[in-house]
Amino acid sequence: MTENNPNASGSPRFAELFEQSLKQVKEGELVRGTVLSVDADNVQVDIGFKSEGLIPTWEFMDEDGTLLVKAGDIVDVLVEDAEDEEGRIVLSKEKADRLKVWDDISKAFEADEAVEGVIVSRVKGGLAVDIGVKAFLPGSQVDLRPVRNLETLVGQKLQFKIIKFNKRRGNIVLSRRALLEKERKRMRETTLQTLQVGQIIDGVIKNITDYGAFIDLGGIDGLLHVTDMSWGRVNHPSEIFQVGDELKVKVLKFDPETERVSLGLKQLQPDPWMDAGMRYPMGKRIQGKVVSLTDYGAFVELEPGIEGLIHVSEMSWTKRVKHPSKMVSIGDLAEAIVLDVDEGNRKISLGMKQIEPNPWSVIEDRYPVGTRVKGMVRNITNFGVFIGLEEGIDGLVHVSDVSWTEQIKHPSEKFKKGDEVEAVVLKIDKENEKFSLGIKQLEANPWDDISRRYPIGTEISGEITSVTDFGAFVKLEEGIEGLVYSSELAAERVDKPSDVVQEGQVVTALVVKVDAVEGKISLSMRAVNDRQEREALKELAQQTKSQTATLGDLLREKLERKNQE
Questions:
Q1: What superfamily in CATH does domain 359-442 come from?
Q2: What is the DSSP letter of 47?
């Protein structure tokens, strides 16, 4: 090995040659040398000058600590200093590599070529990338679409384009998006040239929305609408797909001008509605899963792509189902009978209640007309009360069938929910599922023998219960009233009944007409003191041939006979 100290030789010529060789070495210059030896601490390199350089061994190791050189290898090194304290030239393999990287990066930048690098960490605004030196990748340049979680890219080795380069400041800005856009443009041109309706093509799910999924077909996106994903029900595309999924789709529509592409997935499978009527004939008993509920019914999946509707009216023979959730829940297995199949409109009607016999078909056997029944008041309306006899079987007591004698304005005057009442079966309408009951029929109709109890001409006394514009009502007994018309209040003309009688006043009157069918009794206060009318009333009472004659008829008849005489 050459002596490093030029003063070791007394030869002036040697010193001159050494100084001349040193002038050829420039600090910061990249030179090529030969590895002379390698030990645990240093690697000795000869760069062709009078002195050799020692470089720390670690500069020749990789990340795992593996030594990458041996004696005789040719290496590029950087001259840091022409001479150190011991007279050796100072070299650096690490700085040479770094300088070479910068040169390579500069050449790639000028030639608009891609560089390879490894994403090493997440930094403010983007990612740090190792391309031999540290470079910055802005978040907006990571991909064609925004990436929500940049940390997932750390550790990946990718290709990048240099979009900003400043060696002096050590500033390098990269873009992966620029390379992807370039590649996408190339793929787009190829795809547009070959794309056609009916074509089956491979794609990758790029984005998922509520209404469908966008599929990357190779530089161009197509929409796979949710209705074209499956013959079955798909509530949301995310139920069956994820971003990044690869799948085959069929081109349904393609507009070259707008470059809009509609895709289908279910079209790759046979339509399940073909011959659905043969697979699900009317009357067939089926079992399926409840997949959806609406206000009007429940949809049951019979097979993928085939659903039937159980309308609320077909859920129970007896229960008044206001909402299907009262009977079934999503996910339940439901049994039903096929009621109708409409292949054209893709509809199948199902019935749950048809699984069991209709209780209304045997209702007459259990509750014959005239039967006394007991039940609870379940509902009260302005026209009557509904009495629950058994689960789902209610009978209606109309307000007119509550009492023979009472004038009931609203059933709530007599009943409240939960009351137990007794009634008589009056009528059963199986077809319309109506059940009529009566409470007043539990007792005899007091009007049946009203003519016997109040024959025409009978003098009665009673309290005036109300006064109207046309007369006054007189209480004869509990629930029985008679009406004195204004013309029968007094012998003289009465314009206003309240001028003659008042409520609570006890009066005497004669029975002048009885109508058991209509439940009416006509009275006359004027006839009490009118002898002629009394006689006419007696004659009227004796007549049996005409039940429709009135006091006025008889009086007119008497007057006519008298005039003839």
A1: Nucleic acid-binding proteins (2.40.50.140)
A2: -
